[in-house]
């Protein structure tokens, strides 16, 4: 798969994501050519903290996977789950679930 370069300008939506009692501001960039989420940015951890750096890297990885054509539902279903089999085991899984649930109108 080759990476599909995104247009320089594209719409985005910012939503609140709560995971494990912490609120995160998550921005989803939309690629209008195929009407789906193509990038993600998340903030909510203390700036400069280890979690902040992990979130930055996770968002780059998730965005690259989306831009290489990985389906959002496949991404979400590949993430670890808690004992109930439904709840995401990490903030990265919660981000993948959010991306998979985002329907572009």
Explain the overall architecture.
Pfam families: TSCPD (PF12637). Its EC number is 1.17.4.1. Residues 24-101 form the TSCPD domain. Strands 1-2-3 form a 3-stranded antiparallel β-sheet. A hairpin with a 2-residue loop joins strand 1 and strand 2 (22-31). Helix content is 33%, strand content 25%. It has one domain (12-101): Enolase-like, domain 1, CATH 3.30.390. The chain has 105 residues and is of the alpha+beta class.
Task: Write a concise keyword list for the protein shown above.
105 residues; Enolase-like, domain 1; DNA synthesis
CATH class: Alpha Beta
Helix vs. strand class: alpha+beta
Report, as a whole number of angstroms, the end-to-end distance: 26 Å
Q: Could you tell me the strand content as a percent range?
A: 15-25%
Total beta-strand segments: 3
Catalytic activity: a 2'-deoxyribonucleoside 5'-diphosphate + [thioredoxin]-disulfide + H2O = a ribonucleoside 5'-diphosphate + [thioredoxin]-dithiol
Keywords: DNA synthesis, Nucleotide-binding
Protein name: ribonucleoside-diphosphate reductase
Enzyme class: oxidoreductase
